[in-house]
Design brief:
The chain is an alpha/beta fold. It is built from seven helices and 13 strands.
Length: about 260
């Protein structure tokens, strides 16, 4: 795919590695492109024109949601459509070497909003809301559809902010047994259990390509749930002697796993 060279653009003439990376620190969006042109529509187009007040000739980074970044210049700014020239492309540098799926048992109130945002920033590939026995929050079908739409929006905004190359998928709400059965056939599963388990340094994750992380809601997991998970090959693990809140546990777990796999 041929793209235009930036050397003729005075604004973008850089020499050091740091300065070259600065070329990509512009407003970031997810959109379509054909290698020569890129396009932003809908709410993001309105944001570009009315909030950012970007004019013709200004720069932005457009990601194709497949871990490819495109440095672009605006050529047309309209209310529902912004058109760009593609100047340069590169693989997204924030792509993790491991795919981590967070199976998060539903917490109360809006804690899941925070969890989705932080899990996205930390590089989770997929986030699945799970109903376990100790979940107090049990939204009906209509409510969960609205919540998932909100979480998808939160994940997209967090991906833009952190420089992610792909918005994590928000899975359909599932029950704990189904989540365990599904993931035990896919990759390395880890259940963080308040009653103990292996330390993170003992987990076989350094060479793993896919990891499933199970985090409980308020009150954690029932013993029979932990037993079910272990019987299906999910490894019980601990985050230490302190009991973390359900919104703190996924942040700690993902941070450590990303570090152990060389992604932090």
């Amino acid at each position: 795919m041929a793209v235009k060279n930036l050397e003729s653009t005075d604004k973008l003439k850089k020499t050091s590695t740091e300065e070259k990376n600065d070329r990509w620190r512009y407003p970031r969006f997810f959109g379509k492109n054909d290698g020569e042109k890129a396009y932003i529509t809908g709410e993001d187009a309105k944001h570009i024109g009315t909030v950012l007040r970007m004019g013709i000739g200004e720069l932005a980074v457009i990601c194709d949601n497949e871990y490819n970044d495109f440095l672009c210049r605006t050529v047309s700014v309209q209310k529902e459509l912004v058109e760009f020239d593609v100047l340069e492309s590169r693989p997204n540098e924030a792509r993790p070497s491991v795919e981590i799926t967070l199976f998060q048992c539903l917490p109360k109130s809006d804690k899941m909003d925070f969890i989705v945002q932080k899990a996205t920033e930390l590089g989770a590939s997929k986030i699945v809301p799970v109903l376990s026995k100790r979940c107090v929050s049990r939204p009906d079908k209509k409510s969960i559809v609205k919540k998932i739409l909100r979480w998808e929006k939160i994940a997209e905004e967090a991906s833009k902010q952190c420089g992610g190359g792909k918005v994590p998928e928000i899975g359909k709400m599932t029950d704990f047994k189904a989540a365990v059965s599904e993931y035990s056939k896919i990759g390395t599963g880890i259940l963080f259990y308040e009653c103990g388990g292996k330390s993170l340094s003992e987990l076989p994750v350094k060479e793993a390509s896919k990891i499933g992380v199970f985090i409980g809601s308020e009150g954690g997991f029932e013993p029979e749930e932990a037993e079910l998970a272990e019987n299906n090959g999910i490894i019980p693990a601990t985050l230490g002697k302190r009991i973390l809140r359900c919104e703190s546990a996924p942040v700690a777990a993902l941070s450590i796993l990303m570090n152990l796999t060389g992604n932090m």
